[in-house]
Amino acid sequence: MTDTAALLDRLLSIVGPKGILTAPEDKAAYLAEWRGRFKGNSPAVVRPATTEEVAKVVAACAEAGVPIVPQGGNTSLVGGSIPYEEGREIVLSLSRLNRIRSIDALNYTMTVDAGVVLRTAVDAAAEEDRLLPMSLGAEGTCQIGGLISTNAGGQTVLRYGNMRELVMGLEVVLPDGRVWDGLRSLRKNNTGYDLKQLFMGAEGTLGIITGAVLKLFPRPRQSETAFVAVPSPTAAIALLARLREASGDQVTRFEILERRILEFALRHVPGSIDPLQEPAPWYVLTELTAGTRSDGFRDMLETALGEAVEAELVLDATLAASETQAGQLWFLREAIVESQGFEGGSIKNDVSVPVSKVAEFLERANAAVEAACPGIRPTAFGHVGDGNIHYNLSQPVGMDKAAYLDRWDEICHVVNEVVLDLGGSISAEHGIGRFKKDEMPHIKSAVELDLMRMVKATLDPKGIMNPGKVLP
Questions:
Q1: 213 forms bridges with which residues in the sheet?
Q2: How far is it, in rounded angstroms, from Cα 209 to Cα 42?
Q3: Would the keyword Flavoprotein be found if you checked this record's keyword annotation (predicted)?
Q4: Domains in the chain and their CATH numbers?
Q5: What is the mean pLDDT of each run of 10 residues along the chain (472 residues)?
Q6: Where are the beta strands (DSSP E) in 291-387?
């Protein structure tokens, strides 16, 4: 039986008084998911300040047989960073590992601690006239290690790829306390297994990422934002193809939203505006960026949209005339997320399908959820340029919120059946965590699950790294 007091004393000796929290009021923020779906317990939240301290903490927990829940900014949407209610697990927060270690502008790379907040990393790259292209709503809170561990996506995946594609090297503390230093900044390194791939998207179940080498890019010199009314998702996908061709594939962001969720934002979120005079069933919010200045860049976009109007793919459009106007349009993207809470219960799905099947997914999923729950209000939006739809479902008007949310698993299963039939994924960018792990036998073959379990058993034979997450 573990002597918890002795372990906590040992951890205190490693990280010092500033590095360990045991009082309930100090631990509270680390034990609950921000949406309120998961709340756990832990004897302590440990906050090491260096990779060496992380390694010593992990070694001590491994020796004591005490499991560890690694935690970054705690912005997970699937409960991956929250301990279970039994309170056996130590929460290991990376928040004090927050140094920008170096920036190599000529190599277009930066090396950072895992606890660096995304916004901090983006700003540090910008100071060197470079771009770190990851962009998502939680950028002021989420941390680099968590983004890598969940293989986060965001709004610029279409142009730059998800987090997995932005990582060149990793530093990882293994479940026995050893440190693997894979902080290489090479674009070509063909020397066997690419070990870093094991830890990206593993959600802390195979080790703890403590540092990373990230790819940087030239900063855009031009940016054009357009808000476009379209008659259907089919038209939106056709418009995307046209814009990619017309611009030489310089479409950076391409978001879709339907009229209902725009009306939610207009109704509930101060500062929301309706950019066009006449309502339309669907809208596209897109950004194109160029690395050089050209007088013809805006003309190109206007011409492409004009041709799309003639082809009956576009009903109306407005182009931002300034950075301020562009900011107002992109504010809508965050406002639609905020607005859903004012409309009662919202059952959320983060799914992806091939881009060519987005329209079919929306048609079939809408019919399926309406059959399962008459009056349900689909509010689809998201990074449709990469096939990722945030397919959220607001409760029927007048229905009891608790009764509706009790049907979460049932209704998500209805959606997932459509997703899988179209060759899609039930988790596009949020991960599996606790929330979706019981779906894994339905979406992974027996061979895939066996391989995943073999990797887990090899790297973490004691099963102490974020147990009960990802694998059923």
A1: 111, 169
A2: 21
A3: yes
A4: 4-93 (3.30.43.10), 100-218 (3.30.465.10), 222-340 (3.30.70.2190), 345-441 (3.30.70.2740)
A5: 85 97 96 84 97 98 97 90 94 98 98 98 98 92 96 92 97 98 95 96 97 97 97 97 96 95 96 95 96 89 97 97 95 93 93 95 97 96 91 96 95 95 92 90 93 97 96 90
A6: 316-319, 346-347, 350-352, 377-382
